[in-house]
User: Fold this.
Amino acid sequence: MTSDRDTDTLMIRTALPAEVDAIADLHLRARSTYYPDGLPPSDFDWRAAWLASVERPDGHVLCAVEDGRIVAIASFRTAEGDPVDTVTLFQFHVDPGRWRSGLGTALHRACVEQWRADARRTAVLDVHVDNERAQAFYVRQGWVADPDDGGHHLGMRLDLGRE
Assistant:
């Protein structure tokens, strides 16, 4: 799958296990932007988590590759216990140096195409409450906020039945 950009240098495709280091690095850079006091200390192994996501048979990781470099990533699957027609967007990150360049919109469009091809009717996600930039992006893509539960994340929902 390729983008409709004039340069044709952007390709959106399934991520490969060999790309996990680049994916984990992009994820770290993106996450670092929305914590007001910096990333909380953690010994969580994000590289292993991304490898598990890439290799997971019931999941999907898409990456946007521009000039041979991963510049955006999205990870999704139906969460355990959810209806089969609901997909959860677990991770969605664009390289901070490339924000507002159309990469997020192109990757989101590719996700929606995949979800519709997989007969999903609803997409859900949780976004960090301090990440107002991401919340605004999702709203522009048609997502609506679920009622606020007062936690660290805001739930959002996208109806995939409309074009």
Summary: The CA atoms of residues 14 and 122 lie 21 Å apart. Strands lie at 10-14, 59-66, 69-77, 86-94, 122-128, 144-145, 153-159. The helical segments are 20-31, 46-55, 103-117, 132-140.
